[in-house]
Amino acid sequence: MRVITIASQKGGTGKSTLAINLGVLAGASGAPVVLVDCDAHRGLAQWRLVRAAARPVVAELPEPGGVEAVLANCRAAGAEFVVLDTPAGTPAPGSVIARAIAAADLVVMPSKAGFLDIMAARATVAAIRRARVPGVIVLNEVPPRGAVVEGARTALVGYGLPVCPTAVAHRVAVGYSLLQGQSLAEYDPANRGVAEFAAVWAWIKEHLAHGIAASSRPPARAS
C-alpha cells in the first residue's frame, strides 16, 4: 500500500481538487484506491455524496487525529493507493497534518504561483523534513501561460524538493466537474487540463516506483 499525503499550510492551493483527480487516475487501471478526508470541512465527503461511480472509496477519520487507524483499515481492505487530503494550517507536532505527513510514502505539496503561496510553503517543507519522508511540489491552479509560473518554479526549487515539470493550470471546467461528483477526465475528457493531471500522476508514480519512499528516508538517529 502506498500512502500519498496532500499537504500545504496555505488554504486555497487546490489540495482537495488535486486529491480527487489523482485518486481517480490512480484507480483508472483498476487499482483499489481510498481517498481519506482529513479536513473538518469534509470537501471530499461532500464530493462523494454527489458522485455516481462507486470508486474511488472516500473515507473519513474515525476521530480527530485518527490517521493511523484509518490507514490500518485501508491496509486491511487491500487498498493499493491511499490519498490523504489534509486541512490547511500549521503542521504542528501531533496535529492531523503532521500525522498524515509522517505516515506518507510521499508528500505532495501543491502551491499556487503567488508570492504568499511560495512563502507559506516553508512551514510544510519544514514539517516534511522533520518527519524524514520524501516530498515533492506541484504547481497547481496557476495561470495557463506567462512568465509567472516559471518564476514560481525557480523560487520553489530553492526549497530543495523536486518540483513537478508539469504545472496544473486553473480551469473553470475543474470546478464544474466537482459539482457533478467527477474528476476533470470524467467530466470533459478533451479538456487540456486532463493531460496536465495525467502528467502529474505519472510523475508521482515514477517517484514511488523508483523507491524514493524507502530509500530516501535517513536512518534514525541513535537516542
Automatic annotation (TrEMBL):
Pfam family, one: CbiA
Protein name: ParA family protein
Gene3D superfamilies attached to this UniProt entry: P-loop containing nucleotide triphosphate hydrolases
Residues of the CobQ/CobB/MinD/ParA nucleotide binding domain: 4-146
Protein species of origin: Benzoatithermus flavus
CDD domains: ParAB_family (cd02042)
